[in-house]
Design goal:
Helix 13 runs antiparallel to helix 14, helix 20 packs antiparallel against helix 21 and helix 22 runs antiparallel to helix 23. A hairpin with an 8-residue loop joins strand 33 and strand 34. This protein is of the alpha+beta class. About 9% of the residues have low confidence. Helix content is 29%, strand content 27%. The strands form 11 sheets. Strands 10, 13, 15, 16, 19, 21, 22 and 24 form an 8-stranded mixed beta sheet that branches. Strands 25, 27, 29, 32, 37, 40, 41 and 42 form an 8-stranded antiparallel beta sheet that branches.
Length: 1287
Amino acid sequence: MAEPVNSSLGNMLLEEVSPVVMVLCTPLVEETFLKNGLSFVETLKPFCNFSNIDVPVRTSGDQLYRLKKFTLRLFNASDIRQPNVEVAKQRLLHVITQAGEKVFHDLESDPPQITDILSNSESEIAPTWFQYYNKELIRTLSFADHEAFDHPVACLLVVSSKDEEPLNKFVDLFNTNRLPSLLNDGIMDPKILKHYLLVHDNQDATTERTSKVLSEMRSTFGNNECNLLCTNSSKEGNIEHQANPWASFKSSVPAEKLGCVLTGDDIVEIKDLMQEFASRHIIPYMEQKVRDLNQQISATRKGLRNQIKNLWWRKGKDDIPDTTKGSIYTFSSTESQIRILGDYAFMLHDYELALSSYRLISTDYKLDKAWKHYAGVQEMMGLAYFISDQSIKEAEYCMENAFSTYMKLGKSGFQNATRCGLWWAEMLKARDQYKEAASVYFRICGEEPLHAAVMLEQASYCFVLTKPAMLHKYGFHLVLSGDHYKICDQVNHAIRTYRSAISVYESTTWSHIKDHVYFHIGQWYAIVGMNDVAVRNMLRVLDCGNQSKSTQEIFLRDFFDIVKKSGIKHEVVGLRLPVINMSSLQVIYEDHRTYASQASALVEESIWQSLEDDIIPSLNSGKSNWLELQSKLLPKKYKESNVCVVGESVKVDLEFRNPLLISTSVTSVSLICELTANSDDLKLDNEPSSLSLGTEHNQVTTSGLSFTLSEMDFTLGGGEKKLVRLTVTPSEEGILKIVGVRWELSGSILGVHYFQSVPTKAKTNKAKRKNKLTPTDALKFLVIKSLPRLEGSIDHLPEKLYAGDLRYLVLELKNNSESPIKNLKMKISHPRFVNPESHEEELTPGFPDCLKKGHEQNIIQRKTSRTSSVFTFPKDVSLQGDRSLRWPLWLRAAIPGTISLYFTIYYEMENVSSIMKYRTLRMHYNLKVLPSLETSFEITPSPSRLQEFLVRMDIVNHASSDSFEIHQLSTVGCRWGISLLQHVDTILPSKSLLPGQALSCFFMIKDCRKPGTEEEKPMSIPLGTEEEKPMSIPPSQTDIKLITQDDDEKLFDIVNSSLASFHESERSFSGTTDQLSPNTVDFILISRLAKSSNPSAVSDIPTILSHHSCHNRIRSSNPLSWSLDGLKTINHNFSTSFCEIKLKMVIRNTSDGFLSVSINTSDDSLQDTAAPTSSSENQSGWSYVPAITEEMKLTSDVMGSRLGKPPASMESSPPFIWSGSSSTKVQIQPLSTTEIPLQISVFSPGVYNLSSYTLTWELSEHENALSSTSSGTCQGYPYYITVLQSE
């Protein structure tokens, strides 16, 4: 809270309760100052406010205080009188009317938002003219007979140096006949300070005479009471003051003419004159007057004796009537002298002396029943309490007492009550008591409508400044104020208050008052001639869904009447019946991009652009898309335009909504378009440009020959929404602009909605442009001549299918134009799902027999160029006229889920358009892929055979209702052969895999390459190529049939059919880490849906499903594998010598690192070690041991079990020794094989287990590395050799 002196009320009191100076001047003085467009008093007024005068003052006590702020009020003697009531009303009306004219142009702007209002201070919320109005209202009570602060303190007598006999003029000026009546009637004291001023006009007066007159004045009236003012120093009279001090005091004259003859020195002289006059004359005079009055009153009225005497004298006056008219006190009465003392002390800022004086006289007035005098003293007491920052309670009590007393006087006291209320409200606002201030404003409204309107509006701003803000009271008082303004024909102010009330009610559910505000503000806008704004506000009444049906019918009927009265006969811009959802506005058009379906047009442009980057041609050497290409070919002023083709429709989707409960018929809905035909830049016809507007109303209307508009009629039920597609088809080249939409309502109102300021969603939005398109540019099209347009569709494409489902489809393309298209290319978003065939002809035999072995000639007949996912049609393919192209496609559902397939077909046109050399056809389809079979493989190497591996296949049926039959399992490539370990019937006895069922089965695969040869190196040759043939193995070894019911059924060819292409896609998608590693195996499982009486989850039953598993690594805990090769049975004559047997150990490095292997043999007695032992933790996989004797048994555990106890014949075998080196160390390159020769010496016949050796290995990343990454030891495998005695 600000200090009371610096508050709004403090400033107001400084200006309004200040000494009055009566000015008497001759006509020549006024003539001198009228050269500046000002009277004498108007010239001095800006310099009568002293913000830092700093004058020492001593009033009643001995203590001095310094007066910092001081103000003088100058009045001509003729103006010192009580204002005429009617004239005062006219001045107040002029203030309000002038303020209304100033805000007229602001009425077209948007209403203020409540958030902005709440964040602003009072000075920013309330209109500035309130201050002028309040001051004028207070000044209507000037020079009242019951107050003394308007009594003149001094008289300024002004004579021109050009006057004849200036001294006599001074005497004549203060003649009784020229003094105000208030001085002559004894209400005001005529014995006041007189000051004499001689005005010298520098333009037409002589200095000598002026000096002489000034000397005579000082000798006659006294040296200190006379002054000289030289003015009008400018000879040209064209001086303009940048900060004109008179502009705010007189607005009827242009500011540049005010003070035009006064120089800067003249202004300084005026300032000094008034400063000296106030500090050296007015203030000392008032100071002395206060001391004299205080001494006089202290002697007569103060003290106990004087008070008792005064009460005794006034005894018996209780029976006198109340005084409401005239004054019973003269200026010389004791009561008037006390009042003068209080007012003088107040104006000299001695508020304690003022309070004591007011208290003293208050009782006298009350006993005399001089109620107006009493109320006036109470009013000044409240102000003194406030300005001295004393008791708040006492201040409010005094203001309440004064206000109530004024109101008791009736009509004669209402104006005084109004002034008291204004000061009281300002006092409360200075203490942030806005709610209480609002109640005061409400109490002083009165019966006069215009006055009540201003007070109610000021009360509303108090409610919004309350903490927390009382928004509903704020809005309600604004509405009341607006109604009062309208009664007084202050329509501008009525609109202004209602506009502010809109911010309160637009976000509330108070539909009735909201409709009241919008409807009336619309009417008032129509009165002031703002028809567009009037209709815009009245349209808000139509959106009244909460109103009853009957009320809506009334609103609608009145709305039509108001629209007609507003001057808009048929066309209403922004009609909200029906309501247009601009967020639904969508523009769909085709330039070089064409669409096969509506679904394709709704796809985001970024998806299509990512597909077309690889097929759109580049310009010169730098790569560029079509948008950049277009910008280089088009004229400069059309670079920001969209492009459409003659004869091809531009579609606009727009949603209409009925906000009412009653049905509404909407007719003749069409677009508003402009087509500027012909352009020299585009080398079109040289006819003059013309503007065409579609205005005819048929089912399909044509505007001349420029374009064709579609037109729709529909009926909207209560609250119904409808998405409407409108089209415009240009028939000429030029510039097409979609301006808006129009419709007819009830046959009398033409609704129009323009799109200029509304953002649109264009499905061909050019996202790569540097400069963002404006909404107008998005609806602007460059129309070029007719071009070929390709149409396409895919036959028999299912919407729902199982994962792995393989289908044969046909892509049908057709060009209805006679101009041919060529160089077709197609890009597919999901090459895992779709694979184009390499030829156009239909397959023979049909699907799926064409994929089986023996029909390879129908699959690959001619090669096409295809890089990544771009498919290039043969060069001889061309379309025109009625010819259609049917191209085979293979579809495989690679993964489950909802898949969006995108196809972009690029084609070129010859000699058709210099702007557009090619076009693209965009196709979009959604597939729902259901889960089917999931496979996983685990491959384990054989511990005794390097080329053989055990495969475990796990299958799970994830389908919810369908069963599947397993048809075929194949290994991919020419390296791996596969065979069964058990009969087919034992793998799946039920013949089909039920929903949710899991299955595990085992197979054996064999590496068919020779170890240690070049053929063993990793292969990177694609499937089905010519280079595979020298290394191929019989096809029967790569495929196994997993069904028995159709023994004669052929297996599917996975090498030359589309299965091979899909498998390559799966390999690419699965990653490249292990693609070239020989330790990986690829599998393809073929299945089909089992026959069932229950309906399938997919409507189109699949014929074949393929499941691809890529990059399956061979699992092994050791980085090496080895085998011991040699003779198994030997005949030798031990009678001559011992037997030496030569063996060979083959070791393979199965890792990607460098392997160091040490072979350590042991010559211990082997009787106890001839029997096989359990596998160590370093050994893994499975064991294959051939039958030696019938007593040896193979356990049922195929995953790593060893043999049982050896036959008894082995336990008595004599020992043998390793006759070669006991330790051999070799280095093996990554993925390589080496052979090491070994030898044993046997001394007697028997069966021997050659497993008494160990292999110690170390693995490192680099050759000759100092440290190894891992190491380990492997125990030798059991290897039995039989030595017999020869005959």
